Amino acid sequence: MNLGGHAAKSLSMPSTSWKSGDGVPDQFPVGLRVLVVDDDSTCLMILQKMLRTCLYDVTKCNRAEIALSLLRENKNGFDIVISDVHMPDMDGFKLLEHIGLEMDLPVIMMSADDSKNVVMKGVTHGACDYLIKPVRIEALKNIWQHVVRKRKHEWKDFEQSGSLEEGEQQPKLSEDADYSTSANEGNWRNSKRRKDEEDEVEERDDTSALKKPRVVWSVELHQQFVAAVNQLGIDKAVPKKILELMNVPGLTRENVASHLQLLRIGTPSPPTEILPPLRVLNCGHLLQKYRLYLRRLSGVSQHQSGLNNSFMGPTEAAFGSMASLNGLDLQALAATGQFPVQSLATLQAAALGRSTSKSGISMPLVDQRNLFSFETPKLSFGEGQQQQLGNNSKQMNLLHGIPTTMEPKALANLHQSAQSFGGMNLQVNAHGNQSSSLLGHMAQPQSRMQMVNETNGSQISRLPSSLVQPIMSNGIASRVLARNGMVDNGRGAVYNSVTQASSLVDFSVNQNTDLPGNSFPLGNNSGMSSLTSKGVLQEEVSSEMKGSRGFVSSYDIFNELHQHKSQDWELQNIGLTFEASQHANRQGSMDVPPSVLVHQGFSSCQKSRQNRDTSIGNAMFSAGEESGHGNASNSGHQLNTFLTDNSLRVKAERLPDVSCQNTLFPEQFGQEDLMSALLKQQEGIGPVENDFCFDGYPLDNLPV
Amino acid sequence: MDRNHLRHQVASMRKSLFDQGYLDDQFVQLEDLQDDSNPNFVEEVVTLFYNNSAKLIRNIEQALANNPLDFDMLDDYMHQFKGSCSSIGAKKVKNECTQFREYCTAENGEGCITTFQQVKHEHATLRRKLDTYFQLAKQGHASG
Fold first, then answer.
1. Where are the CATH 3.40.50.2300 domain residues in chain A?
2. What are the start-end ranges of the E strands in A380-510?
3. Chain B: residue whose CA lies nearest to A138
4. pTM score, two decimals?
5. What is the CATH number of domain A219-267?
6. B87 touches chain A (CB under 8 A)
7. Residue A521, preceding bond cis, omega within 30 degrees?
8. Which CATH number fits domain A33-157: 3.40.1190.20, 3.40.120.10, 2.30.110.20, 3.40.50.2300?
9. Mind listing the pLDDT tens digit for each residue in A350-378?
10. How far off is chain A from B1, nearest CA to CA, in Å?
11. Could you report the per-residue pLDDT of A412-440, keeping only the tens digit for each?
């Protein structure tokens, strides 16, 4: 069979594993690294032989857990995974979720069961294909397309973001002075801008394959935007005026209008103010994960996924570019009508975060209030946890535009966690103020994060960060995100916030549509823009949000999301928690794990009571339920409770930290009400129900 | 000639296995995978199948001895077994499995028990035939 040849040549897609920067190796897809998972050794043997005949590099595995270990140990060791649906040790869909969250590899599901609902389940869980057994070799010959497609999307985003940023920055810098004093006349600006754009476009064309200019909503740019809107007053903030105030060469009224639309959506009532400059954390990975979640939850078609992918950004750490892409993608997403604009905003926030992280801004948006209600619980988990959380939250923060200087490792960690916390990140932005102080704490964690990552706990650490996001100042968040991003898929650059943001956004989007509860906790009104990890926070957020209206309205995108609290969100949480729990169990050193899970679980708990089956997620859910969630005002409490509870579960030692952390919140967060509520919760948290017991929570025991 | 005769026999037997519905196209897939680097691939796979399926059959038998019958579990086991059968192209066995699953869905215990006997019967029959076939094929190769 001729697998290489034309296929490879027609693609100009770089692949880190293929060691080709500009294109696919000529031999592609020869040597494609496939991991096959099936409990039936007869099938495994046949598949292996078939794949080998396709000239792929095959690794077979008859247990899902082993497969996950293999994948985790060697993050960049495989290109694609083929897994059976029906396995005794772990449900194939769960494995699919894990892989999607942690490694973001394309996964093909297979089963003898060809009933529509099972196939649909595969789609909603993010499988890139579904094969009916018995599998024929013809079906396997073309699996490389999924790898190419995925990478292409990521690469494309990368390129676009990268080129855009450069192009945009250039004219911006040079003409800033000129424009700063020029009359703020829309027309004049537009024409000037057009010219700049043309220059940019030309430049871009020269340097990349991009065809159309895109505005990179970098953190700085976004901050300018926010400042302008604040100045004008949300009611009077029309694109034209914003544009004039921003005085950014090259920026069009349309750009501003789209951005404004993104931010506006989800704001039930005009916010009293727009949060001070938000720094979006780089959560490329988070976006990616978010995207996966969204996909899974809402059964998003490939289109959506594709969109989300664009958020992912390049493998290289191109934070800024990511941000820009995300912003644009958000709009595009919104345009598709599939994602609520809110989610787009989240993505944007994430994207912004990305750019921020790139710049290495260490302290993020302190201003971001909102979601911190979530954050506090997380921080309470303890220093270690916090750090991890911080890391995660950083990621989350990234989404909100909290710039963080994230180390690659941290990003990687974040990335992973971000994925799960997608929602969480978004929220972070809202609590800028609060986060800053928290972030301070988080700053430390970075090293821890690294540790965690190394221990493989990246997953766990990821979780916390997502939770912490709101709290985490940009600096931390970005750092965290950076780490996560790095880890993720070993793709060199940390997608960080951007990716994650996109993932987050996805979540939010989905939430509105179908995902209930999943990662879109943000949906809350108070500007908990961050999509709390998996919707856990959603409920909380929403309630929190309400209390804290006044949060960046722009980040209120998730207000609506949280309404959805449905089960879908559980799924996501499940995946996350699953990981977290696993990590928690596995890694004694992981500080975060349980707490992280908790956070996620909280939202999920609140909403999805039913999550019982998801091991950790369920625990959280139930926890949420127990605490008496449901009330907006209580949400914050519940979160804390959950978090605390969860953290309690996870490790006894963690708790002490938690309390410390909680105290931080009140000071920092603008939303006293939320914070105090949260804090109170934490203090009053007692042993959580067994549901939350993450300790030594074997995967097998996780009720599915 | 002896060799040709042997090959004819092998080919004829193979054809009858397909004509009589014992095997389906999936078996051809396995044959296509067999090459010089894996000259006994098909036989190896079939051997593996029979080793694995023995365990599955035991599980089902044990489950069928329960009272009351857990149809979900039975269906689960049979799903696995069926998947395995289909992967080697064991057509008749697979069809019996399908029938069994239908009885599980209908929660027809007697139907399950009866059908399972047929599953086992087809399973054993195919094994004998394939054993013969492989032996013949090897002889054909050896003499060739």
1. 33-157
2. 431
3. B29
4. 0.43
5. 1.10.10.60
6. yes
7. no
8. 3.40.50.2300
9. 444 444 444 433 344 444 444 333 334 33
10. 35
11. 443 444 344 433 333 334 343 443 343 33
